[in-house]
Structure formats: structure tokens, C-alpha cells
Design brief:
By secondary structure, the protein is mainly α. It has a single domain, classed as Up-down Bundle (Ferritin), CATH 1.20.1260.10. Helices cover 76% and strands 0% of the residues. It is elongated. The N and C termini lie far apart (68 Å).
Length: 184
């Protein structure tokens, strides 16, 4: 690897230049730290959502995504390693807000009802959409920065997040929404 003019090698090489705009790299790393916190936060919160769900299809979908989320945490740790950085989480205010909203939905709906399940699906899909937006943006930044190995890992997670969102849609459309509509 070429020296960056200061006598030291840059932490990672980019397509745009050997020493890409430091602010862009900093933003990228900051965003990785943010989603790392978010994924770890979800590992703690998804079991609560599964526990409050009554639909077996919804419980299965949430538990399946919990397993994937644990893999996402490990994948992010791999990304930190590829970047030569320590895995550090930076509090994600957005994810904290989304999980608080989910708690609010659970607390404002009757236990063991399809209506609560609909609310849990809505809350879970908001989480998925946040993750899809984050991983999509990070993937594009990794490509721009020429971080092909990192981009590949981010793309894999992005695909899984989109699949989780679609599964939640399927559970809602084919099961839970109709049950909720028939509740007294």
C-alpha cells in the first residue's frame, strides 16, 4: 500500500484516492458505530417483542430475525476488524426511539390480541426500514470508499433486513391483520 504523504499508511484504501476525504471516512465509521449500538440494542429488545406476540407466525419471524441480528452484530465486528478499528458502539438515538415506540404500542394494546400483534408488526417494520436505510447508505459509502470486503458484508446484511421486512409484511397481510379486524 502506498504511503499517504505523512510517512504512514492510511487505514483503508479507497477508490476515490489513496487518502480519501477524512471527513467521509469519519462519517462512515461513526455510522458503523451507530448501527453497531442499534443491533446490540435489538438483541436485547426483540425477545420482548416475541414474548408479547400471540401469533405463532409472528413469534417465529421475530425469533428468526433475532438470530440474524446476532449475526449482524458479529458481521459488524468483522467490519471493524477490516477497518483496523476497535468495535465501539455509539448510542443510536433513532433505534432507542423506535424501541421505545414499540414498548408504547405494547403498553397501549390489550395483551394476547391480534391488535397487539398488528402494532408489534408496525413497530418492527419501522425498525427494519431504519436498518434498510442505514445498511443501504453504508453499502454505497463502502463502495465509494473502495472497501469491497466491507461492502460485501453490508450488502449481505441489507438483503437479510429486506427479507425480514417482507416476512413481517406477509405475516400481516396473510394472517394477523385479518384476525385483528375480526376482534370484538
Amino acid at each position: 500500500m502506498k504511503k499517504n504523504g505523512t510517512g504512514t499508511e492510511p487505514k483503508f484504501r479507497t477508490k476515490t484516492s489513496v487518502t480519501a476525504e477524512p471527513a467521509l471516512k469519519e462519517l462512515f465509521l461513526d455510522s458503523i458505530m451507530d448501527i453497531y449500538w442499534a443491533e446490540n440494542h435489538l438483541v436485547k429488545n426483540l425477545p420482548k417483542m416475541a414474548k408479547e406476540s400471540t401469533s405463532t407466525k409472528l413469534v417465529t419471524a421475530i425469533e428468526s430475525h433475532l438470530k440474524e441480528t446476532i449475526e449482524h452484530v458479529a458481521r459488524l465486528e468483522q467490519i471493524f476488524n477490516l477497518l483496523g478499528e476497535k468495535a465501539i458502539a455509539k448510542k443510536c438515538d433513532a433505534m432507542e426511539g423506535l424501541t421505545k415506540e414499540a414498548e408504547g404500542i405494547i403498553n397501549s394494546t390489550e395483551a394476547k390480541t391480534a391488535t397487539r400483534d398488528v402494532g408489534i408488526i408496525l413497530a418492527a417494520q419501522k425498525v427494519e426500514h431504519y436498518e434498510i436505510a442505514t445498511y443501504g447508505g453504508l453499502y454505497q459509502l463502502a463502495v465509494t470508499l473502495g472497501l469491497d470486503d466491507v461492502a460485501e458484508l453490508l450488502e449481505q446484511t441489507l438483503i437479510e433486513e429486506k427479507a425480514a421486512d417482507q416476512l413481517l409484511t406477509d405475516v400481516a397481510e396473510n394472517d394477523v391483520n385479518y384476525e385483528a379486524a375480526d376482534e370484538a
